[in-house]
């Protein structure tokens, strides 16, 4: 187990070890992020094999209801026609379909299933990312990149389960997915908002909404 130098989100050097089930994890003492030791990460082939086993169909009403926790926040804040990006759309881009059905100009990016780098050079009125940020080895760089693609007044909606205390983390089912390597606390999102000089809201237990000045 290799000790990391700093938190991959806020770059603080202050952290403590949080080993669980034979894997190395660390918790940032500044922003409360928890991340897995790089030595325990899956390689890309094994990671994609896990995603290939997901059954997230565009027309699945239960999946759409799940995504509405994030997309509903877009509908409440942004009026069509407006441009949106679903980052990490996966092989069944249901949120892209939902956006287009609602009158938005909608695109979907995914490094495994829809890898079009040109989409990451455009500007958008809103960006969604549902059940994605927990898979990011470098969350600071990726989230900063998405923030840079937002137009002034735009919104970034992130959906991921939030980590609570250390003891809860040790027994947390969300941790069992081997592709989940970084876990955000409310304080983690507040640290991002402070760095971006943005507003952040928490309308659901697993949703954070950032508004760009």
UniProtKB/TrEMBL annotation:
Give the Enzyme Commission number. 2.1.1.-
Root EC class: transferase
- Note the InterPro entries from the entry: SAM-dependent_MTases_sf
Q: Does the keyword Secreted apply?
A: no
Q: Name one GO molecular function term.
A: methyltransferase activity
Q: Which domain of life is it from?
A: Bacteria
Which Pfam families would you find in this protein's record? Methyltransf_23 (PF13489)
What are its GO biological-process terms? methylation
Q: Could you tell me the keywords of this UniProt record?
A: Methyltransferase, Transferase
Q: Which Gene3D superfamilies match?
A: Vaccinia Virus protein VP39
Query: Signal peptide location in the record?
Result: none
Name this polypeptide is given: Class I SAM-dependent methyltransferase
Q: Which organism is this protein's natural source?
A: Aeromonas caviae (Aeromonas punctata)
């Amino acid at each position: 187990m290799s000790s990391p130098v700093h938190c991959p989100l806020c770059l603080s050097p202050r952290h403590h070890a949080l080993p669980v089930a034979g894997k190395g994890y660390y918790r940032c003492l500044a922003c409360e992020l928890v991340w897995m030791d790089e030595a325990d990460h899956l390689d890309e082939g094994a990671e994609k094999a896990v995603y290939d086993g997901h059954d997230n169909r565009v027309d699945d009403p239960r999946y759409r209801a799940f995504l509405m926790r994030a997309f509903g926040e877009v509908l409440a804040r942004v009026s069509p026609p407006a441009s949106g990006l679903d980052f990490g759309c996966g092989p069944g881009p249901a949120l892209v379909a939902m956006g287009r059905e609602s009158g938005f100009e909608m695109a979907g990016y995914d490094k495994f299933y829809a890898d079009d780098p040109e989409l990451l050079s455009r500007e958008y009125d809103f960006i969604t990312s549902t059940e994605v940020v927990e898979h990011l080895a470098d969350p600071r760089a990726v989230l900063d990149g998405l923030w840079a693609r937002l137009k002034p007044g735009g919104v970034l909606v992130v959906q991921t389960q939030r980590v609570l205390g250390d003891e809860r983390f040790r027994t947390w089912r969300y941790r069992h997915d081997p592709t989940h390597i970084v876990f955000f606390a409310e304080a983690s999102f507040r640290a991002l908002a402070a760095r971006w000089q943005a507003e952040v809201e928490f309308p659901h237990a697993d949703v954070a909404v950032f508004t760009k000045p």
